[in-house]
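idk why but the lab printer keeps eating my pages so im just putting this in chat instead. protein + beta-D-glucopyranose:
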Amino acid sequence: MDTPRRQFLASLTLLGAGMGKAKAFAAAKPHHFSKYDPQVRRLLSQMTLDEKIGQMTQPDQQYLQNLDDLEKYHIGSLLSGGDSDPKSGNDLVSWTDLYDGYQARALKTRLRIPLVYGVDAVYGHNNVLGATIFPHNIGLGCTRDPKLVESAARVTSEEVRATGMNWAFSPCVTVPQDIRWGRTYEGFSESPDVVKILGPAAVHGLQRGSLDNPLAVLACVKHFAGDGGTTFGSGMPKSNNSPDRYPLDQGDTRVDEATMRLIHLAGYGPSIEMGAGSIMPSYNSWNGEKCSGSHKLLTDILKNGLGFEGFLISDYAAVNQLPGDYKQQIAQSINAGMDMVMVPEHYVEFFNNLKTLVDEGKVPLSRIDDAVSRILRVKFAMGLMNAAHSPLADRTLHKSFGSAEHRAVARQCVRQSMVVLKNDNHTLPISRAASRILVAGRSAHNIGNQCGGWTIRWQGQTGDVIEGTTVLAAIRKVVGQDRVTHAPDASGAAGVSVAVVVIGETPYAEFMGDRTDLHLAAEDIAAVDAAKSAGIPVVVVILSGRPVIIDKILPKADAIVAAFLPGTEGDGVADVLFGTYKPTGKLSYTWPSGDSTSFNRSDPGYKTLFKFGHGLTY
Ligand code: BGC
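predcted complex ->
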């Protein structure tokens, strides 16, 4: 029987169109982390149980009660999760000092094993003021260009290393199927064929082909597995006493194993081949069982099946979502194959519980030894165990942080990620000789909306969150200050040569971005209406983390460009608007029309406005 789901699965093989450049990466050599086992065994034999458990414990630095706890609990890793910032500010020096302070203390412990310090550098070193911010993955997916994605990741790794940090929780190789999910923009594409090329390209850029390169950071491929396949309505409750739900995030992915492998695991095998040293199991469940506690997923499929020799880091407090009390939760997760736990707060409790579990025989010592060996393998591969190389920050890298060279790479990413959805009457490219351009819309001069979630704040922030070039500023650079009028509501449109109206979503991250309604805001529609009613050509630029419903503006806009979340380099948007760069971007997600009753692309109620791969040029 040819069910809609079957047809949908069959169609997947067609979706890799345009991925020819992928071959550039086919020859990369897999890292065999087990080659470090002789050194690892020697070190392991000197370690006490406490020292081993410490390697498996990752507190968020903001919850570290005092610096000496690094020694007392033999902590092997720290993270700065969303909003876990240095107390002195988000500038480059404060972040570097934060890292150096912890690392210097770790170097004074008995075994002097350096920390791996993790941070969500998901599209640039996005927690740090002055960083180069790239397009979110949804935009990079539209480039279909693995070399470019690798270059972006290289810049990110260099900027992360400028702060000393050595581990990025990136790339996200999710394959989102329902665009109502708040993490849609973290995925390169709805198509596994795109993700399986661009994910490993990002790994290659971050790790630079060799983890002991002083500019490399450890990649963390996430979220394993099926994070983008959760069933609408199965997401996390908003609070314990409210039936209200975030409909998708951290929900249940109800698919058979063949579908799980075909769609959601697509990025993992190639990323492992590319040498990814860490992988983050996901918050979501697979057919009712939480991934963080699934022996089948973590050990049978990922470690034994896909041959992953690096280590697994849990998601933030994800272990706490397993059934039972905390001790039972820890036992289930570690026995399933989790190697390091992002605790993040109650690290003393975690440490003591895991120790008791080993003493009671509920977690075998062989599992602890395996987990610690995996962590140490990666630390050896990173060159951290080489006493000749200081793991403290190389502050000479500060001079290239957010540099013109780095921004040029981001600008190229922006250019290639723009997708021209519509272009009637050759409205685009806009003539540089246009006598007057009206720049309108609430996002025209809003770097926060242009960057989206994860910039400086976990949720991102509308407004002046970070330095960068807005679309308005970029247009002014092209045609000069005098010929540009800025009016967010498009007032004063009469008589201008063309209006550019920049509209879309405001920032969000994770579950806070789950939406049931994908329509444009009334204010955005009003701005387009106002421009159109002046009888001038109207170009709409949409800044959003996913396709949104544009039916109401479609007949009024002469041209529409989907810019997704381009980051700090608005010049790349202007390059496409004025034709300095002829558009090449192709949709990495299907774009739905407003009469859809579902926004999961495999549901029968999904109605397509623009097909996957759509993108005009001139
Ligand atoms: C997210 C991860 C992230 C982690 C650390 C979690 O809430 O799901 O993607 O890496 O936090 O900040």
